[in-house]
Amino acid sequence: MIHLETRTPRSKRPLVLTLLVIVTVVLLAGGFYLAPRFESQAPVIILTPDSDVVGKAPIEIGVTDQGTGLKSITATLSAAGTEHPVSTEIFATPTREKKLSVEVAKLAGIKEGPAGLRVVARDGSLFTGNETVLQKEITIDITPPTLQLIAEDRYINFGGAGAIVYKPSADTATSGVRVGDHFFPGHKGQVKGKEDHYVALFAHPYNAPPNAKAFLVATDKAGNSREMGLSYELKNVKYRKSTIAVSDSFIESKVAPLLSGGDAKEGGAKETFLAVNNRLRKENDDRIAAITKKSTSARQWDGAFVQLSNSKVEANFADERTYTYKGEAIDKAYHLGYDLSVTERYPAEAANAGTVVFAGDLGIYGNTVILDHGLGLFTLYSHLSSIDVKEGDTVKQRQALGRTGQTGLAAGDHLHYGVYLHGVAVLPVEWWDPKWIKDNIQPKLEGMSGDEIAEMQQPRKTAPKRRR
């Protein structure tokens, strides 16, 4: 029996191998080119704000695709049986990210009530592309909340505080007082016998223009806002200006140790002082502002705050200090509190009942304790030599928080005492004044109206003496 074998001639083997290599390279290149275009990752759609109620404030539709990129976006709104085109975007070249701002309230024919928002995004992958559909049922509300002012302040000290009581409509989500760039939120349920009333403590900040306007503001869940102007007479308070000469020995002993790492080695004495008094001071003040913006609504304090016993005020609030070095004015800063001096390592007393929200080192302020008294009101105690409380502790009025000292940027043993209202430093002396508390704060917390408070504050007329 004869077996026949078929063999490729040796002369053709190199050609076959070459063809196989070429085919393999083409297939790999094609796969490398086509694989991304067959990607299965669909676009991502995010609504901001992601709320079920939409008002006059615009909605931002953010669409991203990390694969082949976006090819098209379509948004429509259906309401009362009618479909309203919102936006259609078709991209000539693939786009990774696109943001659309939609003002639903401005669409023609839109009325308040239930509606449906539909967003369709498609990417550029081969054939039909990957598609993401977002369907959201919403309620259109374009009516802003209402505001009723119950009691306000007729006079406010420049740099000092005021208090108002108001009643917003039930659909209000956030409310409070805005003065310039500062916002002071209102607190519900703190007015005696008036659970639906709000009280807001606010300030006309020491660094705000005297003509800065104050507004009572209410915003609902849909983003609709209503404003009401507040009228009060701003009483002038004269703040001091002083000049402080900075010596090399002070910079070496007190300033330089506050810097860490490479900061302490850069530049000379002047640069070291500026790094602390300017940059580090701002960091510390920003941290204090952040801490004192997060307050409990429940009022923990009662009556007037107290000054450190037996103390003397050595430096005032909002003093504008000019610092000189070798006769040259090199920096300015505001002193945001009172410097109170007694004897060395004197017990630093809580000015009123509250909760410890910070206890530790705070840069130029040294060892510091901050108390939250509720309704956005805080007190600060700095330059302590020791701290006897910890975060979370509740303290009583006159309770020792630690002992005075000269930590941080203090040149001598004293207590730096500050009062803050929703992140803004305010005039401390008002809160030490029982009459100011009785006339301006307490009646509002007791539920008295503005007319009742005004009548109470009127001087009583004495009956004329009868002639015999």
Q: Can you put this structure into words, describing what you see?
A:
- By secondary structure, this protein is an alpha+beta fold.
- The chain has three domains: about 40-140, Immunoglobulin-like (Sandwich); about 145-235, Immunoglobulin-like (Sandwich); about 240-430, Glucose Permease (Domain IIA) (Distorted Sandwich), CATH 2.70.70.10.
- About 15% of the residues lie in helices and about 40% in strands.
- It has helices at about 15-35, 250-255, 270-290, 430, 435-445, 450-455; strands at about 45-50, 55, 60-65, 70-80, 80-95, 95-100, 115-125, 130-140, 145-150, 155, 160-170, 170-180, 180-185, 185-190, 200-205, 215-220, 225-230, 235, 240-245, 310-315, 320-325, 330-335, 340, 345-350, 355-360, 365-375, 375-385, 385, 395, 400-405, 415-420, 425.
- Helix 2 crosses helix 3.
- The longest helix has 23 residues, at about 270-290.
- The termini are far apart.
Please supply descriptive tags for the structure shown above.
Glucose Permease (Domain IIA); single chain; 3 domains; 32 strands; Immunoglobulin-like; alpha+beta; 468 residues
